[in-house]
Write a structure and sequence with these properties.
The protein is of the alpha/beta class. The protein contains 5 helices and 7 strands; from the N terminus they run E-H-H-E-H-E-E-H-H-E-E-E. Strands 1-7-6-2-5-4-3 form a 7-stranded mixed beta sheet. The chain binds adenosine-5'-diphosphate (ADP) and magnesium ion. The site of adenosine-5'-diphosphate (ADP) has 17 residues, from helix 1 and helix 3.
Length: 140
């Protein structure tokens, strides 16, 4: 599925389409400032989390859910931008995070773990203008 958005709010409205897939893992591809965190905040809002901030410095942020969307209990918001190897990423315990089916794992900068990522939903964001983004959602 491919959609063009014209504002951050527009992109956040796509969050429901992502949740409709009932994903366990979502990988967000796109350059710095593409809108990965913005879209993830849209997912958070739908699940009643008001404040999701970028985990660039903390790498993983964990949230508990009180909603009842397809048995989800927690969210792991992960940003691998600052890591330099797959081993470093695995040391974070990623495999345990995504083995938990009640945990929704949202990953920014997933390229470094491409070859160990289980089946997942890929969200690719391309910058097409100052406020314009081309967003492609693919089940991989
Ligand atoms: P990333 O996490 O990919 O680095 P962010 O979500 O932090 O990106 O930042 C995206 C920036 O682009 C924000 O400043 C946001 O306001 C802006 N923006 C402009 N247009 C859009 C759009 N259509 N979708 C998402 N973000 C947009
Ligand atoms: Mg980000």
């Amino acid at each position: 599925m491919e959609i063009t958005t014209h504002s951050p709010q527009d992109s956040q409205a796509l969050a429901q389409k992502i949740l409709d897939h009932e994903p366990n893992i979502v990988a967000f591809n796109g350059e710095l400032g593409a809108g990965k965190t913005t879209l993830i905040q849209g997912i958070g809002k739908l699940l009643n989390i008001d404040r999701m901030t970028s985990p660039t410095f903390t790498i993983i942020k964990q949230y508990s859910l009180r909603t009842n969307n397809y048995e989800l209990k927690t969210i792991s918001h992960i940003d691998l931008y600052r890591l330099s190897s797959k081993e470093e990423a695995l040391d974070l315990g990623l495999e345990e995070l995504w083995a938990d089916k009640g945990n929704l794992v949202l990953i920014e900068w997933p390229e470094i773990i491409d070859d160990i990522l289980p089946p997942h939903l890929e969200v690719k964001i391309e910058v097409a203008g100052p406020d314009k983004r081309k967003i492609t959602i693919t089940q991989l």
